[in-house]
Design goal:
By secondary structure, the chain is of the alpha/beta class. 42% of the residues lie in helices and 19% in strands. It contains 14 helices and 16 strands. The strands form 4 sheets. Strands 10-9-11-8-7-12-13 form a 7-stranded parallel β-sheet, with helices on both faces. Helix 5 (84-99) runs parallel beside helix 6 (138-149) and helix 10 runs parallel beside helix 11. The longest helix has 28 residues, at 4-31. The relative contact order is 0.14.
């Protein structure tokens, strides 16, 4: 029997350990850098991405061809695809992150104790962050920029679907960062697509300080089940839009169509439409969706709105389609809408459309999701749209950070205590 299978996990473990130790050394240097130095380096990285447009788009074309040959869904291909406009947006996002206020060194609180000691809480980087993601090549740039700006080193492990795109983006990005004085090991891309490398990252307690998974349910479930490193989780985007009886029909129509069909493959896309039973124009909500090619799956009252709506299955209420498919339910007012959201939402983004401020206030207060919206499309669930420059993901848990995770979410704090000889009695 060959000894190779027994040696491979050890080899991958050694690889991850080497990357993590190099990242730790780079992070210590990065943490000492002044804010203007990091800002300049990120702007050089953005320029390098723009200069490498042809190379990056060629690499992406190779990934797209492979994806089509391997039967990726239309939604997956849309998430993978880069265009000159999308690449320009990626470079712009890196530049925007560069211009954001540096969170490192911020004094969160300060207080003097009766004995004269002065206590401060000071914002500091988390340290070494592992990012495990699937088909979105923009994550390579977004995650790197956010980590560098917040003083963290990162180890990136992208999906095989985007391997060529990720390598081309990483190459250009690091060239710009190094030109600006950032050590190359501050942003490392896993050099292998071996799935065992993911397991090695998850087991790297003491070497990697935090793992951020960005991908489908199976990836996040594996990370949460196997990780010995703290995880900042981004779960499904089972997002609801509730159109209340007092919604403005023109506004509701525009928001519902945009929330589902602008880009069906992103985590902020609406997956369930709830229509108040007394809303005056339910057909005006579903007809544009159907005409745009969206498959609607509804309960009995929803199917009565339009015969093209097909019966919903029990698990549809708990499915993140990431495609032109939408679940539709008719509910008896706010309380039933709240009950449905409570039973089926994933804690990502939920929205209400109404002109009744009291109803809106109850929805905003009682829906326990990371993002709750009033009279706006759930497609705005994005760090860039929130003025954060970019995001490393949308955290749906309850600890450390919720919603779009950007610079502040990639920091922790330490206590500084300044005394003048005090001893504890």
């Amino acid at each position: 029997m060959s000894s190779q299978p027994a040696q491979q996990p050890e080899s991958v473990t050694d690889l991850v350990e080497g990357l993590a130790r190099a990242a730790r050394t780079a992070q210590r240097q990065l943490a000492r850098m002044d804010s203007p130095v990091k800002e300049r380096a990120l702007k050089l990285a953005a320029d390098a991405l723009r200069a490498a447009e042809a190379e990056i788009l060629a690499a992406n074309a190779q990934d797209m061809a492979n994806g089509e040959a391997n039967g990726l869904t239309g939604a997956m291909l849309d998430r993978l695809k880069l265009t000159p406009e999308r690449l320009a947006g990626i470079a712009d996002a890196v530049e925007q992150v560069a211009s954001l206020a540096d969170p490192v060194g911020e004094v969160i609180s300060e207080a003097a104790r009766p004995n004269g000691m002065v206590l401060q809480r000071l914002r500091i980087p988390v340290g070494v962050i592992g990012i495990i993601y699937e088909s979105r090549p923009n994550v390579t740039a977004d995650a790197a920029a956010l980590c560098v700006r917040s003083g963290n080193a990162t180890i990136l492990r992208g999906g095989s679907e985007a391997v060529h795109s990720n390598r081309a983006i990483h190459k250009a990005l690091v060239a710009g960062l190094v030109e600006g004085g950032v050590p190359a090991d501050a942003v490392q891309l896993m050099p292998t697509q071996d799935r065992a490398a993911v397991g090695a990252m998850l087991a790297a307690a003491g070497l990697i300080d935090m793992i951020v998974p960005r991908g489908g349910k199976s990836l996040v479930a594996r990370v949460q089940a196997d990780a010995r490193v703290p995880v900042l989780a981004h779960l499904d985007g089972i997002n609801h839009t509730f159109v209340h009886a007092a919604a403005d029909p023109a506004m509701a129509k525009a928001i519902v169509l945009n929330a589902k069909m602008r880009r069906t493959g992103i985590c902020g896309a609406m997956e369930t439409l709830l229509i108040d039973a007394t809303y005056p124009d339910p057909h005006g909500l579903v007809e544009p969706l159907l005409d745009a090619g969206c498959e609607l799956r509804g309960d009995a009252r929803a199917r009565a709105i339009d015969p093209r709506i097909v019966p919903v299955a029990a698990n549809d209420w708990d499915t993140e389609y990431l495609d032109a498919i939408l679940s539709v339910a008719v509910v008896d007012g706010l309380d039933e809408a709240l009950a449905h959201v409570s039973a089926h939402a994933s804690g990502h983004t939920d929205a209400i459309v109404t002109e009744d401020q009291a109803v809106a206030d109850r929805f905003l207060t009682e829906v326990d999701s990371a993002i709750v919206m009033h009279n706006a499309s759930s497609q705005f669930a994005d760090g860039g749209e929130f003025g954060l420059g970019a995001e490393i993901g949308i955290a749906t848990g309850r600890l450390h950070a919720r919603g779009p995770v950007a610079l502040e979410g990639l920091t922790t704090y330490k206590w500084l205590v300044r005394g003048s000889g005090q001893v504890r009695p």
